[in-house]
Amino acid sequence: MPDIGFLELIIIAVVALIVVGPKDLPVLFRKAGQFTGRMRGMAREFSRAMNDAADESGMREMSRDIRNLSNPKQMGMDAVNKAFDGIDPELYPEGSETRKLAEKRKAKEDAMRAEIEARRAAREETAADAQADPEPAPAAKPGAAE
Questions:
Q1: Is 107 helix (H, G, I), strand (E, B) or coil?
Q2: How far is CA 78 from CA 29, 55, 74, 84, 89, in A?
Q3: Which residues contact 16 (CB under 8 A, 6 or more apart)?
Q4: 39-66 pLDDT tens trace
Q5: 138: helix, coil or strand?
Q6: Quick check: 25 and 16 in contact, CB under 8 A?
Q7: 3-state DSSP helix/strand/coil percent for the chain, to nearest 5?
Q8: 89 class by beta-carbon count within 10 Å (0-12 exposed, 13-18 middle, 19+ buried)
Q9: Predicted TM-score (pTM) of this structure
Q10: Taking the CA atoms of the chain, what radius of gyration do you get in angstroms?
Q11: What does the alpha-carbon distance between residue 62 and residue 60 come to, in Å, rounded to a whole number?
């Protein structure tokens, strides 16, 4: 985008006023605005098409993987979390140590989810009570009742 200052805009406006004339100047500005709108629309459409093409080709996933490569520790933790996400105790033989650990982990996850839901419900209830109750009356100053 060209860097046009206030003085340059004034000079352009004066030249346009002289060349086009005061009668046709609003028409010129309207057409210039329509042209600018069309150009922005075309640029938006082009950008949207490029993003769609990047999605189809898997470019976003590749860029995410490249960003993760810059932080190998986080990438390793993501892989570990993904590997252990959703371990079902039923997948392991009855009485095995792995099954016991998976059951303990699942119980802890369920307890944590229940706690989070309880806290969220309490927070929403407190917010609803605060909205329902009118503001408390200001406390009387000591000695004012005399």
A1: helix
A2: 55, 22, 6, 10, 22
A3: 25, 28
A4: 999 999 999 998 888 778 877 788 777 7
A5: coil
A6: yes
A7: 75, 0, 25
A8: middle
A9: 0.36
A10: 33
A11: 5
